[in-house]
Automatic annotation (TrEMBL):
One of its GO terms (cellular component) is plasma membrane. The keyword Transmembrane helix applies. Its main location: membrane. GO terms for molecular function: transmembrane transporter activity. Keywords: Membrane, Transmembrane, Transmembrane helix. It comes from Gordonibacter urolithinfaciens. It is a multi-pass membrane protein. This is MFS transporter.
Length: 435
C-alpha cells in the first residue's frame, strides 16, 4: 500500500469535503425536493391544468434522477467526479431555466427530465458516497451533516418562491434558483474529491497501523467490497433496496402534497411554506440523530427507531389538519424521520456491502426510491380527490412507512464482506510489520 499522510486526531480533511458537499446538497437536494411543492400552485394556475397533471412533473423528475443514478458510478470512473459535477451544473440549472420559460404542460415535463438527470449527476450517489468513502467510524454523522443541508435549501426556496409569486412574477423564482445552482455546482466540481486515497489519505485520517487493528477499518482503508453483480445476488441488497423503495411512497407522497393539504384547509401559501420549513428543521434534528445512532448501533436500528415515529406523525396529522398549532406540532414526528433514509441507506450500503463499489451499487439501491416517489406523489393527489380525502391518502402512506421499517429491520451484514475485511486486516498487518 502507498505511503499515507497523517491527519490530526481532532480534524481530518474529510470534514472539508463534508462542508463542500453540504453546500452542494443545499442545491441538488434542498432546491430539488422543496421547490416543487411551492411551485405547484402557481404553475397549476398559470397553465390552467389539473393538479394531477402538474404533479406528474415531480414524478418525471424523480424517475429521471433515479434511472440516471444507475450510471453515476460509471460516469465517475470515466470522466471523474469533476466531470460529473460540471454536467450536473449545466443540466440541473438548465431545468430551472426551462421551468421559468414554459408556457405548456409538456415543457414542464421536459424541464423535469433535464433537471432530474442533473440532480443525479451531482446528487444522491455522490453526496452519499463522499462521506462513506472519507469516513469509517464517523460516517453516520458525516452523512447526516451533509443531508441536513435540505433545511437551508428549504429556507431559500421558502423565501424566493413566495416572494416571486406575491410580486406577480413567479417565473423569477426558477431563474434565481438556476443561477444559484449553477455557481454552487461549478465551484463544487473543483473542490470535491471522491475518495481520500486519491490524495494519499485514509478514511477518518487513520494511519496504516490504526487501520490494521480492526477489520472494518482495514476494509475501508483497502477499499474492499462486493461488486455490483455480487451485491445483486444477496438478501442484504434486496432488503435495503425494498425498504428504500417503500419509503418513497410513505415519505414523498405526503410531503409534496402537504402545501395543497394546508391550503385546502383554509391557510395561505405563506403558512404552507412555513410548515414545510418546520418539517425540514425537524428533519435536521432527525438526520443528526440518525447519524449519532448509526455510529453507535448501526443504520438498521437507527432507521427503525426514526421511521416508527414517522408512522405516528402521519396518523396524528390526519386528525389535526384544521388546527395549525397541533398540525405543526404533529409534523415534528414526521419531520424527524424525513429523509433520514438518505443517511441510513447509504451508510447501510457501505457498511453491509462494502465501500469499494459504492457508486455502482448505490445507484441500484436508490432506484426503487424515485420510482415510488413517482407513484406516491400523484397517488396521494389522486386519492385526496376521492371520498377518502387526504386522511385516506396519508393513512395509505403510513402503511408503506411501516413496511419499509420492517424490511430494514431484516438487513444483515453480508458474510463475504466480513471475510474481505478480515483478509484486509491481515494484509495491512503484514505491510506494517514489514516497514
Amino acid at each position: 500500500m502507498a505511503e499515507t499522510k497523517k491527519s490530526s486526531k481532532f480534524f481530518t480533511p474529510g470534514w472539508i469535503q463534508v462542508v463542500v458537499a453540504f453546500v452542494v446538497a443545499i442545491v441538488t437536494q434542498g432546491f430539488g425536493i422543496y421547490h416543487f411543492g411551492m411551485l405547484k400552485v402557481p404553475m397549476t394556475e398559470a397553465l390552467g391544468a389539473q393538479p394531477a397533471e402538474v404533479a406528474l412533473g415531480f414524478s418525471i423528475y424523480a424517475l429521471a434522477a433515479g434511472f440516471a443514478s444507475l450510471v453515476v458510478g460509471d460516469v465517475i470512473n470515466k470522466i471523474k467526479l469533476r466531470g460529473s459535477m460540471l454536467c450536473s451544473a449545466v443540466l440541473f440549472s438548465g431545468g430551472f431555466l426551462i421551468l421559468g420559460l414554459m408556457t405548456e404542460i409538456w415543457q414542464v415535463y421536459v424541464a423535469y427530465v433535464v433537471m432530474g438527470i442533473g440532480s443525479a449527476l451531482g446528487g444522491m450517489v455522490i453526496l452519499s458516497g463522499i462521506p462513506n468513502n472519507w469516513f469509517n467510524k464517523r460516517r453516520g454523522i458525516a452523512t447526516a451533516i451533509i443531508w441536513s443541508a435540505m433545511f437551508p435549501g428549504s429556507l431559500v426556496v421558502g423565501q424566493i418562491i413566495p416572494a416571486a409569486t406575491v410580486s406577480g412574477n413567479w417565473q423569477m423564482a426558477p431563474f434565481a434558483l438556476a443561477g444559484i445552482a449553477f455557481v454552487v455546482l461549478v465551484v463544487g466540481a473543483f473542490l470535491l474529491k471522491w475518495q481520500p486515497q486519491e490524495v494519499g489519505l485514509l478514511p477518518d485520517g487513520m494511519t496504516e497501523e490504526e487501520a490494521a487493528a480492526q477489520a472494518e477499518a482495514a476494509g475501508a482503508a483497502k477499499l474492499v467490497g462486493l461488486t455490483r453483480g455480487e451485491a445483486l445476488k444477496t438478501t442484504t441488497f434486496w432488503f435495503i433496496a425494498i425498504a428504500f423503495a417503500l419509503i418513497g411512497i410513505g415519505e414523498q407522497g405526503p410531503f409534496q402534497n402537504f402545501p395543497a393539504y394546508i391550503v385546502g384547509n383554509g391557510f395561505d401559501l405563506a403558512v404552507a411554506g412555513a410548515f414545510m420549513s418546520a418539517i425540514s428543521l425537524s428533519g435536521v434534528v432527525g438526520k443528526l440523530a440518525s447519524g449519532v445512532i448509526i455510529d453507535a448501533v448501526g443504520p438498521r436500528i437507527a432507521y427503525c427507531i426514526l421511521n416508527s415515529l414517522a408512522v405516528v406523525g402521519l396518523v396524528l396529522i390526519i386528525f389535526v389538519g384544521d388546527n395549525i398549532v397541533l398540525l405543526f406540532a404533529s409534523s415534528i414526528l414526521f419531520g424527524v424521520a424525513l429523509s433520514s433514509s438518505a443517511v441510513c441507506f447509504s451508510t447501510a450500503t457501505a457498511m453491509y456491502l462494502g465501500p469499494k463499489h459504492f457508486g455502482a451499487i448505490y445507484g441500484f439501491v436508490f432506484l426503487g426510491k424515485p420510482i415510488c416517489d413517482a407513484i406516491g406523489v400523484p397517488l396521494v393527489a389522486a386519492v385526496s380527490g376521492t371520498a377518502l380525502g387526504f386522511s385516506g391518502a396519508f393513512g395509505i402512506c403510513a402503511v408503506f412507512v411501516a413496511g419499509s421499517t420492517i424490511s430494514m429491520f431484516m438487513v444483515r451484514k453480508n458474510k463475504k464482506l466480513v471475510q474481505m475485511e478480515e483478509e484486509a486486516a491481515k494484509e495491512l498487518q503484514a505491510e506494517v510489520a514489514a516497514q
